[in-house]
Amino acid sequence: MRPWLRQHRQALLSALRRLGVLNAVVIGVALSLPAGGYALLESLRGVAGRFALDAQISVFLRPEAKRAEAEALGKALRADRRIEKVRFVPREDAIRELSAVQGLPELIAALGQNPLPDAYVVTAQETQVQTLSTDLAKLPGVAYVQADAVWARRLAALAGIARLALWLLSALLGIGLVAVTFNTIRLQILTQREEIEVSKLIGATDGFIRRPFYYLGLLQGLAGGCVAIAIVASGLALLNREVRVLAESYGSRFRFSFVPFGDALAIVLFAGLLGWLGAQLSVSRHLRHIEPA
Amino acid sequence: MVSFSAVAKRYPGGDEALKSVSFSVESGELAFITGRSGAGKSTLLKLIPAIERPTSGSVIVHGQNVGALKRGAIPYLRRNIGLVFQDQKLLYDRSVFDNVVLPLAFSGHAPREAARRARAALDKVGLLAREKSNPIQLSGGEQQRVAIARAVVNRPALLIADEPTANLDAESATLILDVFLGFNQVGVTVLIATHDQALIERYGKRVLRLDQGKIA
Known about the structure:
The complex is a heterodimer.
Chain A: H1 3-18, H2 21-50, E1 56-61, H3 67-79, E2 83-89, H4 91-99, H5 104-111, E3 119-124, H6 129-138, E4 142-147, H7 148-191, H8 193-201, H9 206-249, H10 261-286
Antiparallel strand pairs in A: 1-3, 1-4, 2-3
Helix pairs in contact in A: 1-9, 2-7, 2-9, 7-9, 7-10, 9-10
Chain B: E1 2-10, E2 16-25, E3 30-34, H1 41-47, E4 56-61, E5 64-65, H2 74-79, E6 81-84, H3 96-106, H4 111-124, H5 140-152, E7 158-162, H6 170-185, E8 189-193, H7 197-203, E9 206-211, E10 214-215
Parallel strand pairs in B: 3-8, 3-9, 6-7, 7-8
Antiparallel strand pairs in B: 1-2, 1-4, 4-5, 9-10
Helix pairs in contact in B: 3-4, 3-5, 4-5, 5-6
């Protein structure tokens, strides 16, 4: 084995001996917050993505409106230049669609008569959705106008805010990780002060003395990252047991999906990097003061 | 091997430990440095492995001007100098063997070779049987011999000892000096600072007497 390789192995082993479980847990718990938040958000984004983000507007007619009235409205809609596509959904079709949803046929049967109105689903030009829906609401025979895109946008905006909050949280906890490592290494240097002094006296290079601390910071970060991933995985598994019951009652197969492997790996590696950074800062700050005399 | 010319050392605060010291020690020599406490013996010895730097003058060791060495070069200088301190500076969280093998880890020796060398060094100071003990279980004289084993494990050409017998009884002190003498006989240059006049006289070696920061 080459001497430098042997020295690295030695430093790694000495760091492993000093690796504290408690520190890894502290870092892991802190990191599990943004990592878990990220997993939840990504799962919800999958759901939100299923909502139409294209500019669809549903125009519901008054229930008592006659078919002729509906056809007149259809003409008006087709004449509007801001509208690209018009689809008529008669009340009979609507109730049939609804009947396909689990659990609802019994309810519909109990109602006796079809409570649904005729409706138009129009696709508008992207930029016109807001004004168009206000205008459509004023047309004769129209009871209610619903722009799905507006809701989809609101949801997307909310998700954006949540994502930003997660980034801020990650940044703060990242700084926390660096600080925790900084302090761990500081204490470790103080504990080993005598060994460091003696080693310097009898021919240890700065690199030799620093190396175990770098490894300690790195390993602590990596271990913390792994703990965080484990916490998120088991947390999501627990959540999913309940979510499954709830989702199935809605006829959905929704589950919180775990962070993709690549992202999990990135979280662990990034934690390791931050640990190394903390060690680097701590070592250059504290080792300088230990000079044999 | 070691050569001082017009070396002065003033500590921050104006305390002048050495005024103008000039001498040289040839390869293979054994010399005592003596003088009252506070005469500057320790300071003189600390200049050799660059633990302290001279304020003026030059300290040449192995042909290198130690006072001008870059920080990064100092560890390599120290590996060629065996250092023995008055207070041993052993590490009490590990065995005698691990103390002695420590300097070999710095230079990345293979474990088997390092172990062989460490045992050879312990054998030379007569403590091979105690390799698994903790230094704290050893007497003062034995601890000092462990320190000597650690100092010679890198096979340095120069051995420096600062008051190695200060806290020892006469019998242990003689034993320690015999160990140094043994290394000197196989060609190691040895410099020993001591104020024990009786000891110095018994050996009849060269004596450098420090008085008020100068060689008298």
